[in-house]
Amino acid sequence: MATVHLRIGDLVWGKLGRYPPWPGKVVSPPKDLKKPRGKKCHFVKFFGTEDHAWIKVEQLKPYHPHKEEMIKINKGKRFQQAVDAVEDFLKKKEKQGGKEQSSEGKGDSKGKKTPTKPLKILEEDDEDLSALKDPSEKPVQDDPHFHHFLLSQTEKPASSMEPISKRLKIVEEDTRSTSIQAADSTAINGSITPTDKRIGFLGLGLMGSGIVSNLLKMGHVVTVWNRTVEKCDLFIQEGARLGRTPAEVVSMCDITFSCVSDPKAARDLVLGPSGVLQGIRPGKCYVEMSTVDPETITELSQVISSRGGRFLEAPVAGSQQVSNEGMLVILAAGDRTVYEDCSSCFQAMGKTSFFLGEVGNAARMMLILNMVQGSFMATIAEGLTLAQATGQSQHTFLDILSQGQMASTFVDQKCQNILQGNFKPDYYLKHIQKDLRLAISMGDTANHPTPMAAAANEVYKRAKALDQSDNDMSAVYRAYIH
């Protein structure tokens, strides 16, 4: 949102954290309430909920110019009640000749002073911001698609658009990539219309588990398989069906997704005994979500197509937490019609998806992204240890970093976990090292140097030698302190 100049009493739309813009009024904060440091913000009272929050100026919009725009986006009952409360406020103000009366701390009809209710101050990282959503809907933590609310409000590129369904927009860019974003208020609020196609899912690791959970929550019919069958139990309890082999899952389903650890696992799943290839029939769709090299993707596409199957690669950018929240970024390439058939599934598991053209392009883009992320993580770990080695406070280093241009949730979470000694895997260290290795090999094939990635790869290899493979990628920190 653009920065605006506001005064006490102005009506606004305020956006707090991951939640939708909500009608409110700029008010004076209590005298004993300190303004957040380092933030240009206003104190806002929300209509309908009576909650208050400090809102950054860039997350505020004037009420009247954007009223119609916001009403089109949000159709929730609680939201409509909040808008009605604004209109009632305006009518009362008009009757009073434009003067506003405050009931807070005023006397009652008998002259007694009415105590002011304590303010509930919301913050961006609050777990419970349920006031800013319709109470008839599922709790936000169980409904990640509520977070899609602003996708249709973000600045759109100069591009042409073509609808593929009531709830989607496909955005064509100069790069010939395509993105799917939630564009209908019902989809945005979590009420996705699931495809009537039968969905299969192979691989219930860190990423796959969150994906399947969100597919089920959004009403998809899902059949699951995992090498360790016990991992399927939780999803069976949530309504999934169990497939005994990859071949059986593919034969039972219209679209089968797979998400496994590396190229070998992806090949074995397709080409091995009772593998995917044995269940492929003409018209069956296979979607490879594993992060692998372009050569593996090309091979799998060819063997699936040779049996009349339809193939799409769709690796995902994110982590276990992002997967659980249904906020992955999906990179797809291959059969465009399969991409379109997967639209409700991609909405369930991610905040946006991109179609990148021919088979292999998604693998290439995914490796580049993970190469950058892995190298960045190693550099952050190097900075933390250098700070300690030179007598600087690591906590102060993080505080300064969080106020600068590199501030991000990723940096904050990883650094906090490092300082707490918490290396519970959100993205396995062994997998980011695998991605670096594959990216370096891809660079060699293209005759393009990757010296930064190569240096980072050596640090991760040292961390693996220190038995950090099954820890989070942030455990690369330990390569610098041993």
Automatic annotation (TrEMBL):
GO biological process: transcription elongation-coupled chromatin remodeling
Xref: SMART domains: PWWP (SM00293)
Residue segments, region Disordered: 92-144
Residue ranges with Basic and acidic residues bias: 92-111, 130-144
Top-level division of the source organism's lineage: Eukaryota
Xref: InterPro entries: 6-PGluconate_DH-like_C_sf, 6PGD_dom2, 6PGDH_NADP-bd, GLYR1_PWWP, HIBADH-like_NADP-bd, HIBADH-related_NP60_sf, NAD(P)-bd_dom_sf, PWWP_dom
Entry-linked CDD domains: PWWP_GLYR1
Coarse class of the protein's main subcellular location: nucleus
UniProt entry keywords in alphabetical sequence: Chromosome, Nucleus
GO molecular function terms attached to this record: DNA binding; NAD binding; NADP binding; nucleosome binding
PWWP domain location: 8-66
Pfam family name, one: NAD_binding_11
Cell location: Chromosome; Nucleus
One of the record's GO cellular component terms: chromatin
Family: Belongs to the HIBADH-related family. NP60 subfamily.
Protein name: Cytokine-like nuclear factor N-PAC
Gene from which this protein is expressed: GLYR1
